[in-house]
Amino acid sequence: MNTSLKLLLLIACLCGLNFTSAQQTRNVIWITYDGLRWQEVFQGIDSSLMVNETYTNQTAKLRNKFWDPDPGKRRQKLLPFFWEVIAGEGQLYGNRMHGNLVNVTNDQWFSYPGYNEILTGRADSSIQSNAKVWNKNTTLLEFANGQKGFRGKVAAFGSWDVFPYIINEARSGLPVNAGFEEAFWPRLSKRARFLNELQRQTPSPWTSVRLDVFTHHYAKEYLRRHRPRLLYIAYGETDDFAHDGDYDAYIEAAHRTDAFIRDLWNFVQSHPAYRNKTSLVISTDHGRGTLPVDHWRSHGTKIKGSDEIWIAILGPDSPALGELTSPGQLYQNQLAQTVARLLGLPYTVGGKWIETAFK
Ligand SMILES: [Zn+2]
User: Fold this and answer.
1) What is the CA(229)–ligand 1 centre distance, in A?
2) CB-proximal residues (5 Å) to ion ligand 1
3) CA 70, CA 83: separation in Å to the nearest integer?
4) How confident is the model over 8-23, as a mean pLDDT?
5) The sheet that has 154-158: what strands, in order across it?
6) Cβ-count burial of 359 within 10 angstroms (0-12 exposed, 13-18 middle, 19+ buried)?
7) Ligand 1 centroid vs 299 CA: distance in angstroms?
8) Which string of b and e fits 94-113 if b means at least 16 CB within 10 Å?
9) What is the tens place of the pLDDT at every residue in 326-338?
10) Domain ranges of the chain
11) Distance from Cα 112 to the centre of ligand 1, integer Å
12) Could you tell me which CATH class the domain 26-357 is placed in?
């Protein structure tokens, strides 16, 4: 064998190893909770907030539903899908009690910079507000949509009305259903039309964020009808209820979103196009504070700890490591390459994929 042929074979092997190894994942559902703290993910409801009458008016109800003196049982009551299914079959990164750390790399610690980092794989220091500015960066969603086998198979759903700008719907041409937008696709099912009617008739507590129940059911209906290979869903309630200072509602929203994710997983695992070939990648755009106690409501560089996040992964290509209990450090900018690698896409921007997410 001559040298150039050997070299060619070597390159072919390396490329194969990088992007087309025998993986089972053909589809990814990429999910974010807005501003859900790692503290609640790994320890359940916060005892100091549960008894704080400034932030909860339903202490007894909260206690009955979510309290247990053992943090391991408490977190299971709050996020049963995370702790019954993902902890058993998938991976949970970010329990800082074990020195397992996940941080953002952007220097802003709020939503637009966080979602830009998640979706592009790279922090952009020029993004310093949540204003509705078309993102000049290309997200993995936009990149994927230009790849063979993915055109028309990528979509995004979000509760916050800034997502069309973050994903640059105008340039990317991707379907982004966010804020109070209605189902937009052709030949709407009865169910989608009913969702549109309900959304019009349901008041939202906020002007720029809809209730997550609409985001969830629109996304699920789209999944059922259009079979996307990469579907991004951005749930939003947790952050808004936290800013409102309503701990009961923040906790109930986290619990509901966990059930939404279970609903997606059950759908995926019951559908021949998705079963055993779909991965879930779940994370958050930023953390929140803890001390003084009032800081749980907020985030940003003035709030210590709001750069601390978590990551959950579940799917056929990710070893069942459960909760990572050894020291480690991951970053928000690794999510895009991790999703890309699961899908076999040659996306090289930003932080490297999470090594342990692959068998
Ligand atoms: Zn916020």
Assistant:
1) 29
2) 239
3) 14
4) 54
5) 176-178, 154-158, 230-235, 27-33, 278-284, 311-314, 91-93, 322-323
6) exposed
7) 6
8) bbbeeebbbbbebebbbbbb
9) 999 999 999 999 9
10) 26-357
11) 10
12) alpha beta
